[in-house]
Amino acid sequence: MSAVQLKDHPVWKDIQEYNTPDKIQAQIAFMVYMELCEDKGWWNMKTHLCQELSVVFLSGHASRNKPREIIIPMSADTVLNPAQIQTYILTVKIPDHHTNRREEIPDLKRHHVSDQTAMYINRKQAKTSNAETNEENNT
């Protein structure tokens, strides 16, 4: 993608409005966004800003009937320790997005998109016992 096309793309303009200090991460987020939309056929892709971490992240559906996933674009050479991964899991959330369950089990995957890496956090709902479900229905 040429520089002219990049600066004129509406999603790139949205990402720039976040005014994050890490301009490289913002560019990687845009490249991952484009690859997921254009090459991988993801649905309903959106960009978000995690203000606490100053990170641009994405959300979308891998296919029409799959649940929404969170994608944290980062350089392919990024090394994360367990504490950093935990911070991402606990901090990066889709604004105004709520689940029906009290607990969620993150399914963390690391995928290569072109020469970049995107960390996917798929927050799957935890299975609850019938007793817990009945307790929730009675409250």
Could you characterize the architecture of this molecule?
This protein has a five-stranded antiparallel β-sheet with strand order 1-2-3-5-4, covered by helices on one side. It is globular, with a radius of gyration of 17 Å. It has helices at residues 3-8, 10-17, 23-39, 82-91, 130-138; strands at 43-50, 55-61, 68-75, 104-113, 116-125. It is 36% helix and 31% strand. The chain has a single domain (3-138), classed as Trna Endonuclease, Chain: A, domain 1 (3-Layer(aba) Sandwich). Residues 124-139 have low confidence and may be disordered. It is α+β, with helices and mostly antiparallel strands.
Sheet with the most strands, sense and barrel status:
5 strands, antiparallel
What letter string, H or E per element, gives the SSE order? HHHEEEHEEH
Strand runs, count: 5
Q: Estimate the strand proportion.
A: 25-35%
CATH C-level class:
Alpha Beta
Layout of strands and helices, then pairs:
Elements: H1 3-8, H2 10-17, H3 23-39, E1 43-50, E2 55-61, E3 68-75, H4 82-91, E4 104-113, E5 116-125, H5 130-138
Antiparallel strand pairs: 1-2, 2-3, 3-5, 4-5
Write a compact overview of the structure shown:
This protein has 139 residues and is of the alpha+beta class. It is built from 5 helices and 5 strands, in the order αααβββαββα.
Defining traits:
Trna Endonuclease, Chain: A, domain 1, disordered C terminus, five-stranded antiparallel β-sheet, single chain, 139 residues
